[in-house]
Design brief:
heterodimer; A: disordered N terminus; B: mainly alpha; 0% strand
């Protein structure tokens, strides 16, 4: 299972090296993974998943406090989970989101091996402590070699923002960030369209949905 | 068994990532950002700047998603027509 994950996660990095081998120049057209998030079809797929998940979500119908902060969070989690599913498990952040959602045996989702049973209660944040020490040493040395501590600090902050990247190396964090940003942009576009479809169902030309509320 | 060690076939050497690789990633990131992405001023914009803007942008995106989630949740809680509209929009996709 560990080697499985290694292979899976290597693919995204080996993609990068594969691209490097092909052309030395920085790729100006967005790589296919980013174009995927910008395509109409992907947004429709996501919207569909989102609507299905939202329908199953039971918002507490207390008329006294309709704007329950918990509900907003619940919707956000549903949306994030749908987004992670749309990523088809190819990225760290999507797997991290899904692991968070499961909260059970998530060891198989990530690369690290967690042996301590207490780790089961910390889905994303805990990494195998033994391994992380080695990683941390290697990571810090690598980034110091890049020089600027400013860059290092910012990458660390960035890694905290992107789910599942807290203890990753710099290139991994950057790679995950690009995919994460593109995915979130699509998420916002889809949710906005959904919102306008729900609020004013008679006028909607957003995604070509033509439903007329009689 | 350290996955970290066995992985780096693709990056030359065990713990050496080339500057170029990082630079390329930063450039790719820069192109995604709304302000800096349009012009190819990769020389003048420092990596730190790009990273800082990226952090801010991600925080913005998070906030936007939270906002939209809030509004959606209010709508869903309040009206049944919202649910019906959701279902309808699902069917027409």
């Amino acid at each position: 299972m560990d080697s499985n994950q290694t292979t899976t996660t290597t693919s995204s990095s080996s993609d990068l090296s594969h691209r490097k081998r092909k052309k030395k120049s920085p790729p100006s057209p967005p790589p296919p993974s980013l174009q995927k998030w910008r395509s109409e079809k992907q947004q429709q797929i996501y919207s569909t998943k989102l609507v299905q998940a939202l329908r199953e979500l039971r918002i507490s119908q207390t008329p006294s406090s309709p704007s329950n902060p918990r509900n907003g969070r619940a919707v956000r989690e549903v949306a994030d989970r749908a987004l992670a599913v749309a990523a088809r498990g190819k990225t760290l952040w999507s797997r991290a989101i899904l692991s968070k959602a499961v909260k059970l045996k998530f060891r198989k989702h990530k690369r690290q091996r967690i042996t301590a049973p207490s780790a089961l209660t910390h889905p994303v944040i805990a990494t195998g402590s033994i391994r992380s020490k080695k990683q941390r040493g290697a990571t810090v040395m690598r980034i110091k070699a890049k020089g600027l501590p400013a860059v290092q600090r910012k990458v660390k902050v960035l890694s905290r923002l992107v789910p599942g990247c807290r203890k990753q190396t710099l290139p991994v964090v950057l790679e995950e960030t690009t995919d994460y940003i593109a995915a979130m942009e699509m998420q916002i576009r889809a949710m906005t369209a959904l919102l306008s479809a729900v609020t004013s169902p008679t006028e909607h030309e957003e995604e070509g949905q033509t439903h007329v509320l009689g | 068994m350290s996955g970290r060690r066995s992985r780096p076939r693709q990056s030359s050497g065990t713990t050496r990532i080339s500057e170029d690789q990082i630079n390329d990633l930063v450039i790719k990131l820069q192109q995604l950002l709304p302000e800096l992405g349009d012009s190819h001023r990769s020389d003048k914009v420092s990596a730190a700047r790009v990273l800082q803007d990226t952090c801010n942008y991600i925080r913005n995106l998070h906030r936007e998603v939270d906002d939209i989630s809030e509004r959606l949740s209010e709508l869903l809680a309040n009206s049944d027509t919202a649910q019906a509209a959701l279902i309808r929009s699902l069917l027409t996709q």
